[in-house]
Amino acid sequence: MISKILILLLLLSITVTVTVTVAASSSFIFNGFRSRDLELDGLAEITSNGVLRLTNDTHQKTGHAFFPKPVTFKVTPNGTVSSFSTIFAFTIISDIPNLGGHGIVFVIAPTSRGLTGARQSQYLGLFNESTIKDNAANKVVGVEFDTVCNAELADIDGNHVGIDINDLRSVQAKSASYFDEKKGRFENLSLISGKPMKVWMEYEAVKKQMNVTLAPAKAVKPRKPLLSLNKDLSPFIKDTMYIGFSSSTGTLMSNHYVLGWSFEINGEAQELDFSKLPKPPRVGPKPKSKLLTIGLPVICSSLVALVISSLVYFVRRKRKFAELIEDWELQYGPQRYKFKDLYIATKGFQNSDLLGTGGFGRVYKGVLPSKTEIAVKRISHESRQGMKEFVAEITSLGRLRHRNVLSLLGYCRRKGELLLVYDYMPNGSLDKYLYDNPKMTLNWNQRFWVIKGVASGLCYLHHEWEQVVIHRDVKASNVLLDDELNGRLGDFGLARMYEHESNPQTTQVVGTLGYLAPEHARTGKATTSSDVFAFGAFLLEVACGRRPIEGRGTRTEEMILVDWVFSCWSKGRIIEAMDSNLLESNSNVIEEEVELVLNLELFCSLSEPEVRPSMRQVVSFLERDVPLPDFSTMGLTAAGLTFAHKEGFDDFAVSYPSSTAYYTQASSYSTAESLVSGGRWDVFES
């Protein structure tokens, strides 16, 4: 009997010991920290006054701080998760107002380092590309406090709170806010305000419900949580797990601090004592005492301190946006913009300021500190010429100055990315006023003014600048309108330069179907004459209000605009090709000018480049300085045929190479050539 009692007492002793051990690893409170309280990794450190600092002023780094002992979340192996509760106070401080990155996460993870190979920036030191894509085995539950909007990994804008399960695509997320009991509504909170905040996170095993509540650090717990998720966490939490915090920095930096933390299994976590919490770092300058302003020595000392502080602030701020500038780039200094200035000007390249997307990148509107409005094209640079040659070329184009050529103001180079800065054109591109039943159409005087302007700009590129510039993509969508509806030729992403009196060496077929000259599609060589051919197609767009190739339901029913205009001309009724919107708008249409433009288009669209006019001649025709040749009375050799008055244009109508056949051939050729040379085609079909 005595032996049985001893055995029973021994078992009871073991049970008590186990219970104490579990309780010790499952319940704690820290009103401030010491170095032995947590297991630290990365940038994480404990400051001298007991603040857990997860990150510091370092780009692209992570910081982890975990409770050193695993927590038992399940009483039985592979059972259900027990109820648990945690409270912590934190603050996020950024040196740049309203800009910071990336965030902090309270996390339940299988190890005290989060997941293997965790990365910085948008991954918050918790995941990487692989674990995000293949997340079934992650076994991670967390609550994120994210200060940066990321289109791939977040469902809403920055400054939000989200519940994460095996992924950073939050299963539930809301903008940071708390329920104000007096006002009876949720009030917004800025996570990077620098002010301490408190978080209550509770999971009830019976209800299978997780609640997350946020409030200023001194406030009592609001009765309404910010997030409430009904989900059983048992499949996502192992029997024992580690709990702690993960944080990271990216291109922008924030300092992430935790001031206090408590945790409890099967009960409510103990409330933090705000009076015992260490003070977070000060935001803003230290208040000056009135006594310090008395006396010249004190004033001088204050001035010296102010100068030193300003220098330190300037150096730190400059380091945040530091860029690598190689020696060869110094010669382009005046045209090189700082990435920081463009980032601020475009409000961080937000989608709300997106002007459009093209073959080479996205274009954003920006406003410089001088109130100058700019357009910033952001592209990934993969030029075969190499970065040095490409920058040399675009900075050369930056010297172009003409009232009808969009000014390239400068560039910025950062980590293989190229940003081109242009004048901002408030009225957008010309094509918006021509096609698809536009809300606003241009009258004939406005259209003719734009035509003459673009012709003048292209003449400048071909004949009047120090080098010959071949645009290679002249079309209505690349003509921008300023606030006075002046046309400016833009988008020099395809432009190439060569010396006057020399032959261009470009063999890469690039451009837009419907604007490509036949010889360009055959040989791959762009010339000033191929630009003239494209200008002819542009004339048709403006005068006829149609695209060069228009579909009529099926590919076999495509209409080639130049064929139609030619058929109108051959019947002696070329004016019928004019845009019907010009008549409906009751605008003052000058038929002589319309006929001039349509006839000039046919002249520019001749199949042989040698017989097309130069842009200098085109300008003379449009200004009426020189009369346009009469096709029916002139002798002209083109495509091996002689046109004379006695033969008439009926022969020409029969013998002129079919535009439909040409475009079909060009389409198949350009596709193959594009695959070989990497050439760009903006439009394969209308």
What is the alpha-carbon Rg in Å? 35 Å
CATH topology of the largest domain: Jelly Rolls
> How many domain regions?
3
Percent range of helical residues: 25-40%
Question: Stretches where pLDDT falls below 50 for ≥5 residues?
Answer: 11-25, 498-507, 634-686
Query: What would CATH call the architecture of the largest domain?
Result: Sandwich
Global outline:
elongated
What oligomeric arrangement do these chains adopt? single chain
- Average pLDDT across residues? 78
How many extended strands?
A: 31
Structural class: alpha+beta
Largest sheet: 8 strands, antiparallel
Q: Roughly what fraction of the amino acids lie in strands?
A: 15-25%
Number of helices: 14
Distance from N terminus to C terminus (CA atoms, Å) equals 98 Å
CATH class of the largest domain: Mainly Beta
Note down, in words, how this protein is organized:
This protein has 686 residues and is an alpha+beta fold. It is 26% helix and 22% strand. It is built from 14 helices and 31 strands. The strands form 8 sheets. Strands 1, 3, 4, 7, 14, 15, 16 and 18 form an 8-stranded antiparallel beta sheet that branches. Strands 2, 5, 6, 8, 9, 10, 11 and 17 form an 8-stranded antiparallel beta sheet that branches. Strand 12 (177-180) and strand 13 form a beta hairpin. It is elongated.
